[in-house]
Amino acid sequence: MHREFLMGNEAMAVGALAAGVDVVAGYPGTPSTEVLETVARRNPGHVYVEWSVNEKAGLEVAAGAAYAGARSLVTMKQVGLNVASDPLMSLSYVGVKGGMVVLVADDPGPISSQTEQDTRTFAAYAKLPLLDPSDPQEAYEMMGEAFELSEELGCPVIVRPTTRVDHGSADVLVADEGDWARRTPEGFVRDPGRWVIFPALSVRAHAAIEARDAELSRRLSSYARNAVRQTAGPDARPRLGVATHGISATYVDEALREGDDVRVLRVATPYPFPDDLAERFLDGLDEVLCVEELDPVIERALIATCGRRGLHVTIRGKLTGDIQPSGENTVESVSEALDRFLGRKPAGSSPRAVPHEPEAPVAPPCEEDCLSTEKNPPAPPQLPVRPPVLCAGCPHRASFYAVKRAMRGRKAVFCGDIGCYTLGNAAPLDMVDTCLCMGAGINIAQGVTRVEPDTAAFAFVGDSTFFASGITGVVNAFYNQANMTLVVLDNSTTAMTGHQPHPGTGRTMMGQVVERVSIERVLLAIGLRVVETVDPLDLDAAVATVRRVAEEPGVKAIVFRSPCVVLARPQARSTVDAERCVGCLRCVRELGCPALVPDAATGKVAIDAAQCTGCTLCEQLCPTHAISGGERP
């Protein structure tokens, strides 16, 4: 064993490798992405790794491997579980042979997601065991435990970290690579009675699952990570309790002070819920505060336990308004909730004592130019709000602007999608009228035109999202004779989640160079007759292409192809000729590029050389040709 400083996602990847995982699949999505990337980077050579076209495909690849007796892992974020839910719900009934872990990273906040979904609730719906880690060390260890539990029970096991566990870093004790498990899978054994799901099998499987989960609940009451502890207060039997889980358990530990009389329940397996342990926790208590993120899973479970077992305990939490109903918990918010619940003074007025701590030496006075020696220095200013924007030089800005300029004066709707290009909604572009989930923009555009046939409907989709979930929407549009323009923003990568490869890039996660899947050929194979490709940074050509293609009947497509500026960053930079610049600021008002900065002193525009990529879009837009020097990739 040795120690490594690892991000939570890295720790879980190493945990899977140490447990002998054979096949890893997934779809990139923050905050889960680094798990699969770490497996690929630290691959000992025998592990198969792939970025699948979407979460459904990834889960099915992992299931097939588990059918053959291999240990498999599939990774995704919480909204990706929606995509994978169809096979997962059936897989819960069919089961697996090799250990299969479904790692779903939840995003309270949300920081980078459409929704705040709680996978703990989904686990209960799917009737699948779920492990809820609270820190990187536990996340590492839970991976091995999840594989073992999966093989014992013959079903997938969900591991559900949240953003602060995924992206938090810690000193983690891990196994040496020479001690990583290595197994030889049995292979797939044909057994239609097991692997082919029929109604009769489902009825039997459902009954077996209910019995299994009831027994598992009893077993998990003895699982070491489900624990009850009592703080060192003066009372032998506290009357108050706190029930918590995951990263919130860490916050509770930090927020409790010496002298607090409280009993703490830490739930590492919210499903199946450890009822017996919960009853022991509740014994003798008057009130319990449930500190959890997203759904009131523990709160409802404790209420149910009290009802079934005749316990008279007041359960507080989200349902009673004692814990915020949405968003992330923090040490500060948990401390405030505990202040109210325990009737204690806020930490600022009653600091936590640290016994036997020597006093820090007093520093000598500073010189005048040193740090301030004021006893009560002013509070630091609030950090500025930094809303996300398209990068300087991003080809998506040029694509949106070309469509906007071509459609000026026409009734049009612009249906967006999930990715970097969602940021096209911001001013001054203002080019995303709808955004629901991956691939949805294509079908929403069809729905709009069914109600308003005179509207020019555009559906924007990225190249990775096109493969993930966009193709089916195009097939639907073509088959049902819709009238819309598909705009594929092809920047040759999965940019928003970290530049992962996809079927259109010509390489795999295993490093193989393969024949790339042509978006244009796919569209032509579906049946589209008008499919044009253009560089969006060639503004005149892009605008002309949009005008021409939009006039065509039926479903037609434009592929705007230009590499992500992070991958193909030109060396040239644009500069402004102050003599020619008339201060019209058209470039700033119409493009919103962060490299374009109005100069308050002169009223003209300046270019931030640290951000400019020389894409030339502003050069083509400038009416006085005052900007020059750029170089398109």
Give a description of the structure.
- By secondary structure, the protein is an alpha/beta fold.
- The chain folds into four domains: 219 residues, 3-Layer(aba) Sandwich (Rossmann fold); 116 residues, 3-Layer(aba) Sandwich (Rossmann fold), CATH 3.40.50; 167 residues, 3-Layer(aba) Sandwich (Rossmann fold), CATH 3.40.50.970; 54 residues, Alpha-Beta Plaits (2-Layer Sandwich).
- The chain is 35% helix and 15% strand.
- It has 20 helices and 22 strands.
- The strands form six sheets. A six-stranded parallel beta sheet has the order 3-2-4-5-7-6, sandwiched between helices. It has a five-stranded mixed beta sheet with strand order 9-11-10-12-13, sandwiched between helices. It has a five-stranded parallel beta sheet with strand order 14-15-16-18-17, sandwiched between helices.
- α10 packs across α13.
- The chain is globular and about 80 Å long.
- The protein starts with a strand and ends in a 5-residue tail after the last strand.
Entry summary:
The chain is of the alpha/beta class and 633 residues long. It is built from 20 helices and 22 strands.
DSSP helix fraction: 25-40%
| CATH class identity of the largest domain | Alpha Beta
Strand order of the largest sheet: 3-2-4-5-7-6
Low-confidence segments: 350-372
For the secondary structure, the number of strands is: 22
- CATH 2nd-level architecture of the largest domain: 3-Layer(aba) Sandwich
The structure class reads alpha/beta
CATH topology of the largest domain: Rossmann fold
Radius of gyration from the CA trace? 28 Å
Q: What is the CATH homologous superfamily assignment of the largest domain?
A: Thiamin diphosphate (ThDP)-binding fold, Pyr/PP domains
Question: How far apart are the first and last residues' alpha carbons, in Å?
Answer: 48 Å
Largest sheet: 6 strands, parallel
For the record, the count of structural domains works out to 4
Proportion of strand residues? 15-25%
Total count of helical runs of at least 4 residues = 20
